[in-house]
Amino acid sequence: MRPVLEQGLGLCQRHGQRVVRLARRHRLFTSLLAGALAVRLAVMAAYHPALYFYDTYEYVGAALRPQPYVVRPSGYSILLLFLEPFHSLRLVVLLQHLMGLAIGVIVYALLRRYSVHPVAAAAAASPQLFDAQQIELEHLILSETLFTFLTVVAVALLLWRRGAASWTFAAAGAAFGAASLTRVVGLPLALAALGWLLARRTAARNVGAFAAALVIPLLGYAGWFQSYHGSFEITGSSGVFLYSRTMSFADCSRMDPPPDLRVLCTAQPRDERWPPSDYIWHPAAPLQDIQGPTFSPYKESLAMRFALRAVVTQPLDYARVVAVDFGRTFGGRIADYPTWDLARHYRFRDQPVPIPDRTFVAGGSAPRDMRVYERGDASPRAEQPLVRWLVRYQKLVVVPGPVLGLLLFAPLGVLVWVAVRRWRAGPPGPGEAAADGWDGRDGREGEEGAERRAGSRAGSPAAALALVVAAGFVMLVVPPMTAGFDYRYVPPALPFLGVAGALAVRAVSRLRPGRSTSWPTRRRRTAPAPSAPVPRPAAAAPAESPVPPSTRPG
After folding, report:
1. What is the C-alpha to C-alpha distance for residues 248 and 326, in angstroms, rounded to an integer?
2. Residues of the chain whose pLDDT is less than 50?
3. Are residues 244 and 231 in the same domain?
4. Are 61 and 131 members of one domain?
5. Which residue among 6, 24, 302, 371 is the one 20 to 30 A from 477 at the CA level?
6. How far is CA 500 from CA 25, 46, 108, 464, 480, in A?
7. Mind listing the pLDDT tens digit for each residue in 433-485?
8. Cα distances (angstroms) measured from residue 471 to each of 76, 109, 331, 462, 475
9. How far is C-alpha 477 from the geometric centre of its chain's CA atoms?
10. How far apart are alpha carbons 377 and 374 in whole angstroms?
């Protein structure tokens, strides 16, 4: 037994020394990580056991009574189900805070792998580590933190190493599949990543591994959903949410809907209409005039038909309301939108929002479900003076909306700039690959050889920038397209926008007029080639000594 303990202690000591050396090499980021940990510990000490939103009680109810929830996927409820034996909501938020810190570490490590300067890499991770809204979301019993962690892991797996093994692509696909079962916006993200792989002409076996690992969990969940609700899909609410989106502009006099859809029309003038979510939950909403649950199959079918008719009939109006809601991302954080009642859940407050006495999932009320899960009093409580400090912290430490716009659109401009420079430079010659990765093939000899010569272990920086910009854009634009704007949909994009900003800054600092059109990559330190030996002068032949004629051989 003693030798085993000694081996274990020796192993821990060696790993501890390695961690210390790593922390010393990255002192700036280690300091930031320690500060971010201190803020999260302050939040856990100020609010216990956790903070809640209306969706919290649906997630907890679906965890206590396992089922594929009709309104949204149950991936987060499955996590709560696994943690339920511990009966600790504090454990749930502790895990979420650790996920938030891990995301910051992944952002920093990924950028350092692409040779971004340590200061720039640490700055790119700072929004994830210190943004007050991000930290507040981590302390809410909500799916956003788990969703962000899964998508960041998936993207990092795709970008970590060039010519990666097939299992890496399978792991990325599985992470995207899990994210899609946590929030439905994960599916458009996964499709964007699949398109990125195809655009890079990735080897077929790797694309197949990614697609299979993505689709298998989705098919399994859809089968489970069908066994409960009778339809083979992931949720039964897409039509209702899209209907709420179109009610910002739908004009039945232009749509001319059939009689069975006219019940969903509204007589409100366009400039007096409610926020989209009110057309789902408000008691006076047209959807509530139809008998049955809000998300019954009949209402879902009617709502989807109405919404598609509105989009097809009024495409410019649809584009306008989507653009308006998308623009809210780059405004103030956080305004009282869509209502003050919703926005207050996203703020640190002197007194947390109490648990409402309502039933969200059939089989138990919200107070009962929270008490059963916690096995005790789950009412949120606040501790002064930390709460007052956190309220001030949230007013000061938050990424401004215009900065989010800069982090999204500036990297997009850099991508266009690099593409134009590559187009003007012309295609690479025979046997030559574009060093910026636009024309290279993933895992093929051309790009791999170019990157090996440049000394980069990671893949193409231009391709990495394209993927993270696409991920950030999809995260921010899909909710306004399919439902409506909500401030909690913004923080999951922060890690991707940070990576995009850092890669774009590095590109601009290296790609200046008159320089090479190839993407800047780290150069491998190579030993100078040995100089050719200087030839030594030939020795002169010894002079023939004079021999008297009498002694010469005859």
Report:
1. 14
2. 433, 435-456, 514, 516-525, 541-554
3. no
4. yes
5. 302
6. 24, 34, 12, 8, 22
7. 454 443 334 433 334 443 343 334 677 888 999 999 999 999 999 999 999 99
8. 21, 18, 20, 14, 6
9. 13
10. 7
Q: Which domain holds residue 278?
A: 238-330
Residues 245, 324 contacting (CB under 8 angstroms): no
Contact between 186 and 150 under an 8 Å Cβ cutoff? The reply is yes
Are 350 and 298 contained in the same domain? no
pLDDT in tens, 415-437: 998 888 888 877 665 555 454 44
Distance CA 231, CA 300 (A): 12
CA atoms within 13 A on the CB side of 355: 22
CA distance 99 to 105: 10
Report whether the peptide linkage leading into residue 49 is cis, meaning its omega lies within 30 degrees of zero.
yes
Shared domain for 162 and 258, answered yes or no, is no
521 within domain boundaries? no
Q: Is residue 554 part of a domain?
A: no
Contact 513, 534 (CB under 8 A): no
Rounded CA-CA distance 92/106 in Å is: 21
Last residue of a domain, one of 269, 301, 330: 330
Both 450 and 482 in one domain: the answer is yes
Residue 544 lies in a domain: no
Number of domains comprising the chain: 2
Return phi, psi of residue 402, to 5°.
-60, -30
| Residue 543 domain flag | no
Neighbours of 535 (CB within 10 A): 6
Supply the pTM of this predicted model: 0.87
- The CA-atom distances, in angstroms, between 77 and each of 31, 60, 88, 92, 320 are 34, 6, 15, 11, 35
Structure tokens that stand for 408 in this block: 């999204």
Q: Are 173 and 151 in contact (CB under 8 A)?
A: no
SS3 381: strand
Same domain, 227 and 244: no
C-alpha span between 521 and 519 (Å, rounded): 6
Specify whether 297 is located in the same domain as 155. no
Helices (H) and strands (E) in the chain, counts: 23, 2
Give the burial class of 419: count Cβ atoms within 10 A of its Cβ; 0-12 exposed, 13-18 middle, 19 or more buried: middle
Rounded Cα–Cα distance for residues 360 and 367 (Å): 10
In terms of domains, do 187 and 176 share one? yes
* Distance set, CA 412 to CA 358, 379, 406, 473, 500 (Å): 45, 45, 10, 10, 9
Tokens of 350: 């002197």
Last residue of a domain, one of 330, 363, 397: 330
96-112: burial string, b at 16+ Cβ within 10 Å, e else: bbebbbebbebbbebbb
Q: Which amino acid is at 485?
A: F
